[in-house]
Write a structure and sequence with these properties.
By secondary structure, this protein is α+β, with helices and mostly antiparallel strands. It has one domain: outer membrane lipoprotein receptor (LolB), chain A. About 20% of the residues lie in helices and about 45% in strands. The protein has 5 helices and 13 strands. A hairpin with a 2-residue loop joins strand 12 and strand 13. The chain starts with a helix and ends in a 7-residue tail after the last strand.
Length: about 220
């Protein structure tokens, strides 16, 4: 089995995490003694976050389930670990920073280490989903400033972000949380994401479920 085929399942596992069946925990900066406004500031300023829960995903060979842990550091470094249910054996791991992209397949004893760039994300994740964009979805909100993106509020109330050939359009609910996000490259849809449900943690709303689909609409998670 070649490396790409052996890691094919991992691609689907990673996509599957973007439809969370419900996080069992969401930890971040210690909120003890802080007001909701201070916790909100920590959330948007880039603390260390860790999510854990159960994921369900489908692929051509069948259905699978497992336990997952997702960690994002304040430096936007990501570590995603997938474990077998009940036994808890580590089977897949994704680590990514702004420069490097590492996939570990513990079942097949294979790995991929390469640059974290658009073509690599499209090959291994099925879409150009960056760490920054994933963090926005996980938190359900953008930071007050996004210096790498040009911002504009459209007449429909949608927030438009432009960076080179990339365009992102974000819709918010009445409370100011993200409900949908679409990314296009050169005017062509790359992916669309939705957050249909929020839960309160530290007395603040965080996404409980996130769904995402690629440009074709054939792959939905």
């Amino acid at each position: 089995m070649n490396l790409r085929l052996s890691l094919r399942l991992f691609n689907l596992v990673f996509a599957g995490i973007l439809f969370l069946t419900g996080c069992s925990s969401f930890s971040g900066p210690e909120p003890a003694g802080l007001s909701p406004a201070q916790v909100e500031t920590l959330r948007l300023s880039g603390g260390d976050y860790s999510l854990s829960g159960r994921i369900l995903f489908k692929h051509p060979e069948g259905k699978h389930s497992g336990e997952m842990q997702l960690q994002i550091s304040r430096g936007s470094e990501l570590k995603l670990s997938i474990f077998t249910p009940l036994v808890g054996s580590l089977i897949y791991e994704l680590r990514a920073s702004s420069k490097k992209f590492l996939i570990l397949n513990y079942q097949q004893n294979n790995f991929v280490l390469t640059e974290n760039k658009r073509e690599v994300r499209q090959t291994w994740l099925g879409m150009d989903l960056t760490l920054t964009e994933l963090k926005w979805l996980i938190l359900g909100k953008l930071p007050e400033k996004t210096p790498d993106w040009q911002r504009k509020i459209l007449p429909t109330g949608v927030l438009q972000l432009i960076q080179g050939i990339s365009e992102i359009r974000i819709r918010y609910n009445i409370s100011g949380q993200i409900v949908s996000m679409r990314k296009s490259l050169d005017g062509l849809l790359e992916y669309r994401a939705a957050i249909p449900l929020y839960q309160k943690l530290y007395n603040l709303p965080f996404p409980r479920k996130i769904s995402i689909e690629d440009y074709s609409g054939n792959n939905k998670w």
